[in-house]
């Protein structure tokens, strides 16, 4: 299935802008950073100027600006989630991915619905409340119904009366009618990555299967939003092509979503290519991204799209994840496995990619709290209808923090009481007291009330 070639990813415009601002004047950089602090977003030219920074002092100013924006809009909270891979069957031949169709080095598996419930229970035992359901582009004999049934199974799973409160989904592009069926299962965010926006490179690395159709993939978020899914997630796989190009192309894509639907992506993910079983390309990325450039990418995105959540997965090391919290990351996975059945069974070779952060959930939570960040398991916005335009109306001026802050604290308290180790509980309780003491006005009164209700035995309280 194909679509007419889109006009909003404009290669000529991207190349022209990158050439124009390859060596920006320091005054131009200062002007863009001042504009970024207004938290109204940046243009393609602005992003190219930040890409071109080659002065260490100005790079530090970029990082400080990103930190200011993130703290103003989201505060010190970090949303926690885990991926749940239900199948590694795939009909595509993506040269960088372990799930590619012709790879015989991994064990193929599609979980049945009971197995999905068991995997979900394993996540609930860890304390998770948000799950990202992930599947390769090939399903068992039920076809797409398998995905719908799987979402339902995650919601139905229980452990000690606890459950998963929100399922986000990362699956292959769908038709509008299929997206409507997905929405009916009460998913949160629909997430899909273009991998790279450069058509030539896209063609080189996608050599078999439906994923070869660039335009059908790049237009998937349009169909999702047409179907009524107003929270969507976007991203590229850094390392496939020049990150400077992909950043500008992603901005074009975001701009088109804002033009067509009045709202941009709810999240932007920043995966960087990591080794994958059976993929030579993954061992030597064609356009490797250094740690310094990776930090720059996160900071630029926070400045360019200030309202969006930026997601950092366990592809990255614990050290890199720590570094990027201050640069704009607002959501992280923890205790992750990337192979079907991985939460109940150990399998080091059948995952989609290698993990950089192998720490268990409790250790990640403790580390985050020691740094002064509040781990959040909140799903209140989804369940109160603060999605799409309603969410953006609160996020863009920073007003969402009045909800996110108290909700983060109440869900963190719930985690500490029910799942945390004694050491993590002690550190977390101290952080909650300190955080509430520093709050003012309505957010403070909300936080005190919600946390108090959790201490008194209530669960799943939010505002």
From TrEMBL:
Cofactor(s) needed for function: [4Fe-4S] cluster; [2Fe-2S] cluster
Superkingdom of the organism of origin: Bacteria
GO MF annotations in UniProt: 4 iron, 4 sulfur cluster binding; catalytic activity; metal ion binding
Listed GO biological process terms: sulfur compound biosynthetic process; water-soluble vitamin biosynthetic process
Keyword entries, A-Z: 4Fe-4S, Iron, Iron-sulfur, Metal-binding, S-adenosyl-L-methionine
SMART domains: BATS (SM00876), Elp3 (SM00729)
Domain Radical SAM core: 74-307
PANTHER family documented for this protein: 2-IMINOACETATE SYNTHASE, THIAZOLE BIOSYNTHESIS PROTEIN
Listed name of the protein: Iron-only hydrogenase maturation protein HydG
Species whose genome carries this gene: Mangrovibacterium marinum
């Amino acid at each position: 299935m194909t679509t007419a070639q889109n006009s909003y990813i404009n290669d000529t415009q991207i190349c022209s802008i990158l050439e124009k601002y390859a060596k920006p004047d320091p005054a131009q950089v200062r002007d863009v950073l001042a504009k970024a602090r207004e938290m109204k977003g940046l243009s393609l030219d602005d992003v190219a100027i930040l890409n071109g920074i080659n002065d260490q002092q100005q790079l530090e100013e970029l990082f400080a600006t990103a930190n200011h924006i993130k703290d103003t809009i989201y505060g010190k909270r970090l949303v926690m989630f885990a991926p749940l891979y239900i199948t590694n069957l795939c009909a595509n031949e993506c040269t960088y991915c372990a799930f590619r169709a012709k790879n015989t080095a991994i064990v193929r598996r599609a979980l049945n619905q009971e197995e999905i419930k068991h995997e979900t229970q394993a996540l609930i035992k860890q304390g998770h409340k948000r799950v990202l359901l992930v599947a390769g582009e090939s399903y068992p004999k039920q076809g797409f119904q398998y995905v719908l049934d799987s979402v339902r199974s995650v919601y139905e799973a229980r452990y000690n009366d606890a459950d998963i409160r929100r399922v986000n989904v990362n699956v292959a592009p769908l038709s509008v009618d299929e997206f409507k069926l997905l929405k009916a299962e009460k998913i949160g965010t629909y997430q899909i990555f273009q991998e790279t926006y450069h058509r030539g490179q896209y063609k080189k690395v996608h050599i078999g299967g439906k994923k070869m159709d660039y335009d059908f993939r790049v237009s998937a978020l349009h169909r999702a939003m047409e179907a009524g899914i107003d929270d969507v997630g976007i991203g590229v796989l850094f390392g496939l092509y020049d990150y400077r190009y992909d950043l500008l192309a992603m901005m074009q894509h975001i701009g088109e979503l804002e033009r067509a639907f009045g709202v941009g992506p709810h999240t932007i993910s920043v995966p960087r290519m990591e080794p994958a079983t059976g993929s030579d390309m993954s061992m030597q990325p064609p356009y490797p991204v250094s740690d310094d450039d990776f930090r720059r990418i996160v900071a630029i995105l926070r400045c360019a799209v200030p309202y969006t959540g930026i997601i950092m997965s366990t592809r990255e090391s614990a050290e890199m994840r720590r570094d990027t919290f201050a640069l704009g990351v607002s959501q992280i996975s923890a205790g992750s496995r990337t192979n079907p059945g991985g939460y109940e069974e150990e399998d080091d070779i059948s995952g989609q990619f290698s993990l950089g952060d192998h720490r268990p959930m409790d250790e990640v939570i403790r580390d985050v709290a020691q740094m002064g960040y509040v781990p959040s398991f909140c799903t209140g916005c989804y369940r109160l209808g603060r999605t799409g335009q309603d969410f953006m109306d609160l996020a863009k001026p920073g007003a969402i923090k009045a909800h996110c802050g108290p909700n983060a604290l109440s869900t963190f308290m719930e985690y500490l009481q029910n799942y945390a180790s004694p050491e993590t509980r002690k550190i977390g309780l101290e952080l909650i007291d300190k955080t509430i003491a520093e709050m003012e006005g309505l957010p403070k009164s909300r936080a005190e009330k919600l946390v108090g209700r959790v201490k008194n035995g209530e669960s799943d309280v939010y505002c």
